[in-house]
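Hello, quick one for you while I still have it in my head. A protein chain has come my way and I'm curious about its shape. Can you walk me through what the tokens say about the fold? No rush at all, and the record is pasted right below.
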Amino acid sequence: MKPKYTPMMMQYLEIKEEYPDTIVMFRLGDFYEMFFDDAKTASHELDLTLTGRDAGAKERVPMCGVPHHAVDAYIQRLIDKGYKVAIVEQLEDPSQAQGIVKRGVIQIITPGTIMENKTSTANNFIAAVGVFDFHYALAFADLTTGEMMVETIEKKMSLLENELLSQGVREVVVSGRDQSDQLKQLAEVNHMMISLFDHEDKSHANDRRFKEITDFKQIKIASLLLNYLEETQKRSIDYIQPIREIRKDHYLEMDIYTKNSLELTQTIRAKEKYGSLLWLLDHTQSAMGSRLLKQWIDKPLTDRSEIEKRLDIVSIFNDNFIERESIKEMLKEVYDIERLAARVAYGNVNARDLIWIGKSLKIVPELKYQLQALDQPLTNELAERLIDLSHLTNLVERAFVETPPISVKEGGMFRQGFNAQLDEYLDARQNGKQWILDFEASEKQKTGIKNLRVGYNKVFGYYIEVTRSYLNQITDDMHYTRKQSLANAERFITPELKEMEAKILNAEDKIVNIEYALFQEVRNHIKEEVHLIQDVARTIAMIDVYIALAHLSSQNAYVRPEFNDEHVLEIVDGRHAVIEEVMKKEKYVENDIHMDGNTSLLMITGPNMGGKSTYMRQVALCVIMAQIGCFVPARQAKMPIFDRLFTRIGASDDLISGQSTFMVEMLEANHALREATENSLIIFDEIGRGTATFDGMAIAQAMVEYIVKKIHCKTLFSTHYHELTLLDQSLPGIQNVHASVTEKDHEIVFMYKIRDGRANKSYGINVARLASLPEEVLNRAEVILEALEENNIETTLTSEETKIEPASPKVSEAELYLSKMDPLNMSPMEALSTLMELKKMVEGRS
């Protein structure tokens, strides 16, 4: 027999039954309460005290709660831990309710739909996936900005994973029939939430947002996602911008592993923005600009005319320092109006948000003027896209005080003079407060009690407080009525005081109600023009990115890249943009690359730590920077436009999938060999090193031959297999270069200079000597190496008879630090940081 609960608890249970997989936060007065298993989960995850509540049954119901004013922080913590949260609000004033207060779910918050994270400037995309015969259809939306995109990809789980990871998706919506174990595993491994949703009854095919979308698969999956968002948010989300199709042939394709290995938006180890390409380029002044720049880096262009257009605009700003700096200063006044506009339309905006929108839009006329003053067609085009919304700025400035309260239901938002009715009640309240001050002074004089005071609290209203030592001076003819006793005082009321209290409180209530109604009117005026605000926001974001790229290009003496159709890749005095920035105080060694139209593969040899990986990465970064429309770190740069970029750099195990370093290496190489075209760029760093020497060399040579004979794309191929450098004699299209060093008395100095020709040796023992290996080990290694080079295998496999003295137990701090390093797995940034740390240690010791 089921327990019999109170009506309120039955109300909760009916709602919970609709949302079994969701933590229900149930509004009771000033708290959001959770019950039963939800309470147990929340108390554990949020470190809340688990209590109980009498709910009509024999046993108390488990309960915990959070104050309503702090609920956003608790919701964020639950979302970060992978939970969904349903917010249940009181739908009527409890004081006017007949019986139990009406309550209902006003919003379901999930990892992909959270709106309240104001500190992050990054996108928060939610995705929907549709499964068709030969394709996946994907839709992405960001509720916080109103952006939405669709794309169709080949039906491969690896491609699906790549797209979801590239967009930073935390939640995937899928219909029940499209759910699969593979998709569940993909989501689980990558910490994404799967949300099943089958309500496809509402079609959006005729929606204005779908005007550019014609593929039925894309329409279907976009409709599914919009339906899910409206179902969970319990409101219309018509502020979503026109849907944009992601077309593969418009962008330089890079898988997530390539993006990670090149550290485009975050570093490999620390997962931080500092040290990434985004960190270097991001001189934007607004959150919108920063987001757009990240999107450009994620998807460089392949349309030459579009790239050249971007470069033309960067050139204009690069050549006009005064105008550039003036615009840059203006952009510092811009808030994240893309997100603020979304909040206006969504309905969770406050007066401060509206003030920020007004302040941001205020710069538009001057920004427009500065762009037109450049007198260039491209900047005039940008100026035309800036719509003057001064009427909204004026409305906000007339309406609100400089610093209104965060809450919109407490009054105090509006200026005097904005609304005549509000002014009447504001005057009444002000006069009432003055009356209270005059009344206090009068009572002090009448009673002779100098420390008498008139105070107020929400329980008793206005009162007269008299300390106990003066109570004998209160007489009956004063008409004081005792209301509350304190330890050291008594509180009284009088008929006159209570009458004025009613007038003041009535004015307070009226002010709050009128201000809230006025706030809704102002918000709705702005809401009517949200789409125009979004257009302005997108244009400002573009201007911000152009200014940032021009500023960096000018500051660091970058050069405009030149594109060609002859497959010539030539960079003179090229630098690794990020490392150069980190090494500001030190001289960076520049390097060239010369690959004419007949050269497919650059064979790079030389010692570890000689600069091979950095050299290859800098070429890749120059290509990416050029194709997003940025100048590049070089004295001259000529290149074709690449359609795809593949990298295999560094060793890594895929422990979750149970794949070894070598297996991961082969899978990534396979992806490049199968997907690359003659217009692609491949970067392979020491392919084959994860297996036996002869196996590795055979695989590496076979790949080189396949690339040169079959694909004919530009390839940078570093190797320690010196035998491969002879392939240039039999395979046209191969060019040898090497990382140069100087050697004296077994000591080597890295020159970090890439020169023509093959390396004579690998210098592995010399590098080991730099790592301070025991001298006995180094001497023995030299004997073994000499024997190997003479093919005397038997000698090398025979143990040395001579006694080896134990090495000195004393190890320096630098040696210990170096012994923990793994050079093969280091990015250039990490290697540089390690060298600088070692330098400090050695200098400190000396």
In short: The longest strand covers residues 734-744. The chain has a mean pLDDT of 89.
